[in-house]
Design brief:
Layout: E1 4-8, H1 13-24, E2 28-33, H2 40-50, E3 55-58, H3 65-73, E4 76-81, H4 88-93, H5 95-115, E5 120-126, E6 137-138, H6 150-168, E7 173-179, E8 181-183, H7 202-210, E9 217-220, E10 232-233, E11 235-237, H8 238-249, E12 256-262, E13 268-269, H9 270-281, E14 287-290, E15 301-302, H10 305-311, H11 319-332
Parallel strand pairs: 1-2, 1-4, 2-3, 4-5, 5-7, 6-15, 7-12, 8-11, 9-14
Antiparallel strand pairs: 10-13
Bound molecules: nicotinamide-adenine-dinucleotide (NAD) and UDP-4-deoxy-4-formamido-beta-L-arabinopyranose.
Length: 338
């Protein structure tokens, strides 16, 4: 029988790509999502691309009553937990919403997993858990904490909660995956990132300028201590990230608490991303230099050696491929899934 993976937040940007990868790798997929920031259309398109069906439950991870149906109707092998709110600025304005949704939601999910004897979890964590004031190149051993936002703190608290849970009961298998900056889309252009309103992140902003939805991109600061003065990040193709998850699922065969960075280790500045996008797509991006954005660290990127050694995973796609696939999605879906 196929192993059945429950993906919370599976209708979202990263989740939809992971569902597709899992179906293609021969897993059965069950999705739990309240569609707070996504569309069921993404899941229908995942099914079209895979030529296979998944099971969808429109439900909130905080809703205790939702789980009995999910766990009784499906023999869940393990959970990839991606459900959560992720807008950094919104989390500063409404921290309680983030604590409730992300932290309380995870507590309920874990209680229900335990009740149903499912003790395998991959958690969508983030490079934001690191203390970004101390190091630029981050290994899994780099200091954590000092988060600049309530969103970041939810990731840190959940990581610590999962470590405490593991130490209380070593029959769990828990994998913390710290993503760097996921961009790109499936090469078909059928699924991709579909932010509501004004994008918070760089790549969706660039693609919306390219498609004519926004007049110009503001580059937040060109006076940082970096070669071209703009901030440097480690952008990773969402399909490489999806591949990382299907490799991490193999860790479920062992009990333990594991943590991995998922990044390329090849940092890019904001201007380098803009120029890569222009080159890859033969387009010009209208941009202006604007003031710094509060809370931005000048430079950080992953050392992803541990994932290479222990998961046999390595990011393969270039920044040009990320830019090409982001644009392919945006130009074919100017209104996203709407
Ligand atoms: P997304 O918003 O597209 O996906 C999150 C999904 O979770 C959405 O479909 C949303 O409807 C769902 N959701 C939110 N709250 C829920 C709840 N209470 N119950 C059920 N479903 C709920 O975001 P994404 O970019 O795909 O991110 C997925 C995960 O990865 C998140 O946990 C995010 O914090 C984490 N992450 C994202 C990034 C990034 O840059 N995109 C980086 C690091 C970590
Ligand atoms: C990248 C660079 C901006 C928009 C965020 C979260 C982080 C993680 C990934 C979830 C920065 C610059 C951006 C724009 C710009 N998410 N920029 N103009 O801030 O590195 O990380 O997403 O866990 O927690 O903080 O990503 O895409 O917002 O910004 O100049 O309109 O692009 O200043 O240097 P960031 P981003």
């Amino acid at each position: 029988m196929k192993k059945n993976i429950l993906v919370t937040g599976g209708a979202g940007y990263i989740g939809s790509h992971i569902c597709l990868e899992l179906l293609e790798q021969g897993y059965a997929v069950t999705v739990m999502d309240n569609l707070a920031n996504s569309s069921e259309k993404a899941l229908r398109r995942v099914e079209e691309l895979a030529g296979k069906k998944l099971r969808f439950y429109k439900a909130d991870i905080r809703d205790r009553s939702a789980y009995d149906e999910i766990f009784s109707q499906n023999e869940i092998y393990g959970v990839i937990h991606m459900a959560g709110l992720k807008a950094v600025g919104e989390s500063v304005r409404d921290p309680l919403a983030y604590f409730d949704n992300n932290i309380s939601g995870t507590v309920v999910l874990l209680e229900k997993m335990k009740e149903h004897h499912v003790k395998r979890m991959i958690f969508s964590s983030s490079a934001t858990v690191y203390d970004l004031t101390q190091r630029e190149c981050l290994t899994e051993e780099s200091p954590i904490g000092n988060s600049t936002s309530p969103y970041g703190r939810t990731k840190l608290v959940i990581e610590q909660m999962l470590a405490d849970l593991y130490h209380s009961d070593e029959s769990w298998s828990i994998v913390l995956l710290r993503y760097f900056n996921p961009i790109g889309a499936h090469e078909s252009g059928r699924i991709g990132e579909d932010p509501e309103g004004e994008p918070n992140n760089l790549m969706p902003y660039i693609t919306q300028v390219a498609v004519g939805k926004r007049e110009k991109l503001s580059v937040f600061g060109d006076d940082y201590d970096t070669p071209d003065g703009t901030c440097i990040r480690d952008y990773i193709h969402v399909m490489d990230l999806a591949d990382g998850h299907s490799k991490a699922v193999k860790k479920f065969e062992r009990k333990g608490l594991f943590v991995y960075n998922l990044g390329t280790g090849q940092p890019q500045s904001v201007l380098e991303v803009i120029h890569a996008f222009e080159r890859a797509n033969n387009l010009k991006i209208n941009y202006v230099i604007a003031p710094r954005r509060a809370g931005d660290a000048p430079k950080y990127y992953a050392n992803a050696d541990k994932a290479k050694v222990e998961l046999g995973w390595e990011a393969e796609r270039s920044i040009e491929e990320m830019c090409r696939d982001s644009w392919n999605w945006q130009k074919n879906n100017p209104e996203g899934y709407r």
